[in-house]
């Protein structure tokens, strides 16, 4: 089992737990259903993808067709997390509620995305069909 300071910090943020406390299952984050398709995007470097049915599709300018791989999902008190392995490196994506701007378009997204790939942290935005972004369809 892999552990890192980042993963532990994100887990604590998402779950909202303090030492010795357990979250009630009924209190788990439910703004993103397990069967929702989650889409995410980020800049500097550009990256994007989607999560559907326990599988991530993740693309970058170097790999525009993307890579597909399985992830495990967990829901805490303030978000959802998705963890897997991308080309031998850890892939930990956390989606939390909050208005987000990609800084490149006039879009406003309902979720923030924090991604740790290997040892590199990336920030971006996310949305679902039930909770779409607002703004132009093609920026």
Residue-averaged pLDDT, rounded? 84
Number of strands: 8
Structural class: mainly beta
Can you tell me the number of structural domains?
A: 1
Strand percentage, roughly? over 45%
Protein name: Lipoprotein
Organism: Qipengyuania profundimaris
Describe this structure in words.
The chain is mainly beta and 139 residues long. The protein has one domain (5-18, 30-128). Helix content is 8%, strand content 48%. An eight-stranded antiparallel barrel has the order 1-2-3-4-5-6-7-8. β6 (89-100) and β7 form a beta hairpin. The longest helix is centred in the N-terminal third of the chain and has 11 residues, at 5-15. This is Lipoprotein. It comes from Qipengyuania profundimaris.
Short description:
The protein contains 1 helix and 8 strands.
Features:
139 residues; mainly beta; disordered N terminus; Lipoprotein
């Amino acid at each position: 089992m892999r552990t890192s300071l980042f993963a532990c910090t994100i887990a604590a943020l998402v779950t909202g737990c303090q030492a010795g406390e357990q979250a009630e299952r009924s209190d788990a984050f439910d703004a993103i259903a397990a069967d929702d398709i989650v889409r995410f995007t980020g800049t500097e470097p550009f990256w994007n993808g989607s999560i559907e049915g326990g599988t991530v599709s993740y693309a970058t300018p170097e790999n525009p067709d993307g890579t597909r791989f399985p992830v495990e999902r967990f829901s805490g008190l303030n978000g959802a997390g998705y963890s897997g392995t991308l080309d031998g490196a850890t892939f930990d994506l956390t989606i939390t509620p909050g208005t987000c701007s990609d800084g490149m378009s006039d879009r406003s997204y309902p979720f923030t995305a924090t991604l740790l790939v290997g040892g590199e942290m990336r920030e971006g935005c996310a949305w679902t069909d039930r909770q779409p972004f607002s703004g132009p369809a093609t920026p």
